[in-house]
Amino acid sequence: MSGPLAYDLSFEDWVAVFAGWNEPRYRARQVWSQLYRRLAPTPASMMDLPAGVRQKLAESFDFSGLRPHIERTSSDGTTEKTLFRLADQKEVETVLMRYDQRRTVCISTQAGCGMGCPFCATGQMGFLRHLTSGEIVAQVLHFARRLAQSGDRLTNIVVMGMGEPFHNYDATLAALDRLHDADGFGFAERRSTISTVGLVPMIDRFTSERRQINLAVSLHAATDELRSKMIPINQRYPLPVLREACRNYTETSRRRLTLEWALIEDVNDGQDQAEALVAWARGMLCHVNVIPLNPTRGYAGQPSTQHRVGAFREVLERGGLSCTVRVRRGLDIQAGCGQLATENQAALAV
Ligand code: SAH
Ligand code: SF4
């Protein structure tokens, strides 16, 4: 069905819809509960609503919004990736990772990305458009429904898929607020994490709004010369300015900031960068996530060898920085950021 995407509506929007239909106000609560608690996929299964209302809902709103176009599961079964097609045929990716007791969904906030980081498959696509809050919410609901079928549930949401969430701040935060609503999906804020490339004014805004959502910053280099090459927006918000915003965040929120670092052989995996990182992060409540680069079609860089990963980590630990080396998951299904979408584009172009 065409019409507005149902997941774009806030609770207040539903109140207004039912007021306009001369229906009692409690209908809004019923729909909200059906969509976000019972995870009803369409109005047809909202059995506490009268048939007439269900039909009107089905005729007036789009309850799908995202159509799974390609679905893949990694050979070890831990990672599932879905390439969704949006109403305008643009494509975004969502990844579900199952490890230990965790069920983590990694969601996209834009089709493509305008930040142009050369090592990133999404950056190589360029910016196509922002997703709406409903398109962001629908990615989470898709996997929440899937898990519910086997009596399982999501434990973590990470905003680390395609796009720069702080370039699409309003829709991203509206989506998370909708998912965190205690009367609806009821997801705990502290189980969600937003990863940003480092848009300083938006980090400041996020800090001032005082949510409990975790923040991760993609650092990848600790000298301005190198970081500006890897992350062009560093020219606008260089490392000293970024550091100020990060410190303000950790001091105001008292939450630990995550710093992300994709290790690229002979680019950012040397002693000098590790030492510069230790100096940059000194006195900050933070943790470094190191992950060997996922090679992409449009970038010649390669992941660091295990030996160099170990040496890098040692410098951080000696400098008093806590650090986790992440395992690259879902490599066989192009589960890296933007990789399935670019692969699909390339396949279409042939
Ligand atoms: N735009 C946001 C969030 C999406 S990218 C950001 O940049 O933080 C999520 C993470 O994946 C970021 O840390 C990003 O730098 C990293 N990433 C992108 N391409 C990668 C690659 N090829 N290998 C490893 N990590 C990559
Ligand atoms: Fe965009 Fe993040 Fe990729 Fe940079 S790393 S191009 S900000 S998605």
Output the keywords:
single chain, 10-stranded mixed β-sheet, binds iron/sulfur cluster, binds S-adenosyl-L-homocysteine, disordered C terminus, 350 residues, alpha/beta
Q: Can you walk through the features of this model?
A:
This protein is 38% helix and 19% strand. The chain is α/β, with parallel strands linked by helices. A 10-stranded mixed sheet has the order 1-2-3-4-7-8-9-10-11-12. A two-stranded antiparallel ribbon has the order 5-6. Strand 11 (286-292), helix 11 (306-318) and strand 12 form a beta-alpha-beta unit. Helix 5 (133-149) runs parallel beside helix 6. The longest helix is centred in the middle third of the chain and has 17 residues, at 133-149. Residues 346-350 have low confidence and may be disordered. The structure holds S-adenosyl-L-homocysteine (SAH) and iron/sulfur cluster (SF4). S-adenosyl-L-homocysteine (SAH) binds next to strand 8 and strand 10.
The count of DSSP E runs of length 2 or more, i.e. the number of strands, is: 12
Number of helices: 12
Order of helices and strands: HHHEEEEEHEHEHEHEHHEHEHEH
Side-by-side strand order of the widest sheet: 1-2-3-4-7-8-9-10-11-12
Radius of gyration: 21 Å
What structural class do helix, strand and pairing data support? alpha/beta
Helix content: 25-40%
Q: Strand fraction band?
A: 15-25%
Terminal CA distance: 32 Å
**Average pLDDT figure:** 93
What compounds are bound to the protein? S-adenosyl-L-homocysteine, iron/sulfur cluster
Poorly predicted runs: 346-350
The assembly state of the depicted protein chains is: single chain
